Amino acid sequence: MSLGLEKRHQQLLAQAIAAELPRVTVRNKSFIDASGALLLAEEALPHGPKAKDKKLITDLERYISETPVYDFVYQTLTRELDDKYDPKSPSLSLIQLDGYADPKAVADRLVRDFESLPWEYSLHVRLENDFSKLFARNTKAAPISDAVTLVTPDENFLKMFPPPVEPTDPSLTWALPPWAQSHPQSWDLTSMYLRVNAHGFIGEYGETAPLKEAISELKAFCGIAIGLSSPLNKGYFLEAFQFATAARIGRVS
């Protein structure tokens, strides 16, 4: 699947992004300061009256946000630079960093990835109570809806969602996504997880439309469990409601 952005518009978008990249500054080789840069690239998207153009813009709002180019490029660059932190490095232009000297090549790569959207994700929250343990011993998966499933990690699960690699330098723990900093870096094979499928683009920081939709799915599940006095209704749901920090996010395709 792809966005269906015409080649002409892909080229225009790549040119617009390439023109903006030199204006992006990076602190300590890791922290991006766009300060208005990249927003002009939004104008390269087709905003005409044609039904195809209107559908593309609607899709991008659903897959990312109302500023899809800015959010996609910013979040993608942030992920790429996550492990480059250098406390002694001054603020530099992005194109001064290794691998980013050619803004045209970087922009072409970003547009290829952008065109390949939407991507599929699975977000998991561990359910921590006695019912969760009982479920994990007896059931591998129980669909709740098209988007939500209760699952227990098994061998296939671990192949699809390998545990994230912890930083070798403890001082770099901050570089992990927020949802990973306060949660175990391995799956609990004795617990049940709530899986919510998402469709579009999710960055490591900030909330794009698919993540907001996943949060809504989780809240709906929690509300039903509370309303039915389900055995799932335990105090841990106070944490589960904070889905952006409690969930582990894995891209499926």
What does this structure look like?
- By secondary structure, this protein is α+β, with helices and mostly antiparallel strands.
- The protein folds into 2 domains: 7-115, no CATH class; 119-251, no CATH class.
- The protein has 10 helices and 8 strands.
- The strands form 2 sheets. Strands 5-6-7-4-8 form a 5-stranded antiparallel β-sheet. The protein has a 3-stranded antiparallel β-sheet with strand order 2-1-3, with helices on one face.
- A hairpin with a 3-residue loop joins strand 1 and strand 2.
Summarize, please:
This protein has ten helices and eight strands. It has helices spanning 7-20, 51-63, 68-80, 103-115, 130-138, 155-160, 178-181, 209-227, 237-240, 243-246; strands at 25-27, 31-33, 92-93, 119-127, 141-143, 148-151, 192-200, 248-251.
The H/E string reads: HEEHHEHEHEEHHEHHHE
- The number of helical elements comes to 10
The end-to-end distance, rounded to whole angstroms, is 10 Å
Count of β-strands: 8
- Order of neighbouring strands in the sheet with most strands: 5-6-7-4-8
Major sheet details: 5 strands, antiparallel
Question: How is this fold's topology laid out?
Answer:
Elements: H1 7-20, E1 25-27, E2 31-33, H2 51-63, H3 68-80, E3 92-93, H4 103-115, E4 119-127, H5 130-138, E5 141-143, E6 148-151, H6 155-160, H7 178-181, E7 192-200, H8 209-227, H9 237-240, H10 243-246, E8 248-251
Antiparallel strand pairs: 1-2, 1-3, 4-7, 4-8, 5-6, 6-7
Helix pairs in contact: 1-4
Key words describing this protein structure:
10 helices; 3-stranded antiparallel β-sheet; 39% helix; 15% strand; globular; 253 residues
